[in-house]
Specification:
By secondary structure, the protein is of the alpha+beta class. It folds into 2 domains: 167 residues, Aminopeptidase (3-Layer(aba) Sandwich), CATH 3.40.630.10; 107 residues, Peptidase M42, domain 2 (Elongation Factor Tu (Ef-tu), domain 3), CATH 2.40.30. The chain is built from 8 helices and 16 strands. The strands form 4 sheets. Strands 5-4-11-8-9-10 form a 6-stranded antiparallel β-sheet. The chain has a 5-stranded mixed β-sheet with strand order 1-2-14-3-15, sandwiched between helices. A hairpin with a 5-residue loop joins strand 4 and strand 5. The longest helix has 15 residues.
């Protein structure tokens, strides 16, 4: 069953004519999407309504084909973000988590590659949304009690997803289930995009704003040289980038490919930020590229 919030997003997406959708409104809307890697279907439902002629493959990638003939080119935008899924429900009604998707890595001198040890720490004490089978559930990640741990030995190790307990207001596992929480339900930091000056901040805003720029470019009905496949791909943060690989295998070969991306500040934090002037510039570059300009 789709979440209540996803249905609300669909209603908003269809409430105004496509021609009335400005780049700013699209970017803010996309910044409010939650696309935990492997759980992108709610957002791809929205894209299918935004682009009635789009097609969706079995993996979930949404593609729009413009023009015909050669050269055949591909422009892609990865939709997904690093997030979490419910790994367990305790007898007291708390949810435990495991991470899904690959965050950025750091390289040590011995060439080993590990996740930034502070990545999960931004969850601690923060509001999250659990996308259960009955709708979106607000929750909060607990923190260690300062009063109860005072004077006791504590670990200085960074907070990890294994330390997270999500409170959704349930007092038992049965009550959590009655609210719609299930094993593997996706969980993400609550999304409240913030505009300040020329900047827009939200978790994973860089990937979502780049997809908004691609959507705006398509809605501008650019002239096409040859044929262009524009794909909003899924599972880009999984090993092997299966969404992009699926599009190439099903719709290629392509003479040229381009991935829409933006420069960001504070990457992979709750305050990830893009500049709207960069989003505008990306949309303009995409329109020119789709038209065959170098």
């Amino acid at each position: 069953m789709r979440s209540i919030s996803a249905l609300a997003v669909l209603a908003v997406a269809c409430s105004a004519p496509l021609a009335a959708q400005s780049l700013d409104s699209l970017t803010v809307r996309f910044a409010g999407f939650t696309t935990v890697s492997g759980y992108e279907q709610q957002v791809t439902d929205s894209l299918m309504m935004l682009f009635p002629r789009a097609t969706r493959d079995r993996l979930g990638d949404v593609s729009v084909t413009l023009g015909s003939g050669s050269p055949r080119r591909l422009v892609a935008c990865p939709l997904d973000e690093v997030g979490y899924a419910v790994g367990g429900i305790t007898s007291e009604g708390y949810l435990t988590l495991h991470r899904t998707g690959r965050p950025s890595v750091i390289r040590f001198r011995d060439s080993s590659r590990v996740v930034n040890p502070l990545f999960d720490q931004q969850l601690e004490g923060q509001r999250v949304t659990v996308f259960g089978v009955l709708g979106s559930l607000p929750g909060v990640v607990g923190v260690r009690s300062v009063h109860l741990t005072r004077g006791r030995p504590t670990s200085d190790a960074p907070f990890t997803a294994d330390d997270a307990y999500v409170d959704i207001g349930a007092q038992s596992a049965a009550e959590a289930a009655s609210l719609g929480a299930r094993m593997l339900s996706p969980v993400a930091l609550a999304k409240h995009p913030i505009r300040y000056g020329d900047d827009l901040a939200a978790p994973a805003v860089g990937r979502h704003a780049a997809c908004a720029a691609l959507a705006a470019a398509l809605l501008s009905h650019p002239k096409v040289s040859g044929s262009v496949v524009a794909s909003f791909t899924v599972q880009g943060l999984q090993g092997g980038n299966p969404g992009f690989s699926s599009v190439v295998a099903l719709r290629g070969p392509f003479a040229e490919t381009l991935t829409a991306s933006l420069p960001v500040k504070y990457r992979e934090t709750a305050a990830e930020t893009v500049m709207m002037t960069d989003v505008q510039a990306l949309e303009e570059r995409l329109v020119k590229w789709i038209g065959g300009a170098k």
